[in-house]
Amino acid sequence: MREIIVEPLSRVEGEGGITVRIEGSKTKEVSFDILEGTRLIETLVVGKTPAEDVSITCRICAICTLSHRYAALRGCEKALGIQVPPKVHWMRTLMHMGEFLESHSLHVFVLALPDFLGYPSAIAMADEYGEEVLKALALKKYGNRIMEVTSGRMIHGENPTVGGFGKYPDKDVLLDIQKQAQQMMEFAIYGAELVAGLDVPSFFESETSFMCCEPGNGEYGLVGDEIRISNGEVVEAGAYKSLTNERFVPHSAAKHCYYKGKPFSVGALARLNNLGNRVKDQAGELYKKYYSDRWLKNPVFNNLAQAIEIVWCLEQIPRIVDHILEIEQDPDIIAPGQKKGEGVGAVEAPRGTLYHSYRIADGLIAEANFIIPTGQSLADIERYLGMAVKGLMEQEADDDTIQRMCEIIVRAYDPCISCSTHSVHIDRRAS
Amino acid sequence: MLEQTKKQVGLYGFTGCNGDQLTIIHSEDKLLEFFQSAQIQSFSLAKSDNVESQLDIALIEGSISNHEQADLVKSIRSRTHYLVAIGNCSCYGGIQAMDLGAKGWDQRFRTVYGDGFLNSRTPIESKPVDVFIDVDFYIPGCPIDADQFFYCFSHFLRDSIPVFPDYPVCADCRWRENDCLLLKGILCVGPLTAAGCKARCPSHNLPCLGCWGPMQEANVSAEFQLLKDKGFSIEEIKRRFRMHTGSGMMKPLKKILGAL
Hints:
heterodimer, A: alpha+beta, 4-stranded mixed β-sheet, B: alpha/beta, 5-stranded parallel β-sheet, two-stranded antiparallel ribbon, 7 strands
């Protein structure tokens, strides 16, 4: 029996591993394992105020801290009947894009690219690709700066709170962010071209389904009250449980999500596959130039999809800053008019759709449920791993080659394992 | 010659959000310098070619939430000269330890995972690392502050011990000329919380939540009384005191309330 065990899997956020067991010419087991310790966050927020919940749940993950915060804010505000004014909306849109720039540039250039160029890390790439590494880090730093300016800190900033913001950034800071977006553009396009030029193996390709938030108004976007599925269906986010049916599978420790009995994928590739024809300007040009039907079959194109989303974000940011600056008066934080209710907040995290669902009673969280992106893609990740291993066995590949390909597939999904402890969650109503 | 004197350093993440290691990665300008200043043997969030060897300095992020992590952190302790807990989870157990000492973890575990938990790990209630091993230095924060971290790290590289402020968030807050939120009737735990965060939340007109952990000499009972006088319920005060530093607040709260 051949065993390939990668543990811990490096250059991903959190503690995970890949297990491949081969007997003779047959694969006995291929799994992507979530090994992260348990935190029981959903029980910790029970009995807390919505504002406290937002502070706790953003800490599920440091990379997508603001996506968690945004999903929590949307869920709690829906439950409490709070409608935020436009300035709050635009500030949140800006903070969310800062996170996309930070997370995508970290993933594409620092975590994933070394695989394709044959290095153990981006730091090791610095000798030959010094300028690329420095510019990628500058892009990430810019994303971090937006997060800091809007949320009050690079990680776990508390400024976005239920009903609004504690404080609004100064005009000159926002103008500087606007200017910097244009300066970042050249490298962002170069980066997308660089990623587009990488060789993506095709021997494990197979079609799947994709899900993402439907932003509405025929626009590309990162939040929505509805979910769009690649088969053309559009479903209310409140019905997320029917979209993300979780169940245990015999070979894996983690629960997997299925839609109508089949695995699906979420993330940048899902968004561009579902909504890509809505992308305009230079990002739209890149999409048109590089899109092919292979995108529907091969998760490794998620790296390129993220690189194109970086360009899209940089094109949106100047417009968003204009929207914020158009409204001179900083709105006060809106206090909830009611103390109970239910609400589901859905947003796109960089790695896919994120749901925070709440029941609030007496002004305190009575019940919470979070469905995170990596958990939703898990069944598909393992399906592609299985096909890649099978294909490589036919090519009589050695263990190192199998391991490298498996790592490329898992990393392409940009898994967030701190979040994914939840992927072993049991649906309480079903159990 | 300088090559030979480089310290052997390892960074390890246990249970948490990876925010402390990420704070280091987020320090773009200093990141390359950080990798050059020492021999970074292990840092699996950032690189693949990790070597598990004897270390001069181990930096530990995250709380310990299963037996396997407890064994691993003990083995790291056994092969490092100096061990530093970085971040609130490592120092105090973090948000996942907010109910530490109160009963009910088994029940809460079953609520989330049912009886179907099949992960190859043996879970326990999350605890700070010093429950399992000796810790030489603590760098608190949720997440750590990059400036504070690099200040400490450069001391460690020279075998010296950094000096931390011995005042609470309130001092930093005053220097920034913020209005006191407690005076406005807002539940702020700045007086109990160690400085180091640059008073970020009060500077955004939002109360301190205590994410830097307790200040050692803080007068917990005085703040408790003050908040009670302002009309906050014991339940509310207790909840807020424990949110970020459940383990750090166990002793003083027990003293005030008798039971948790």
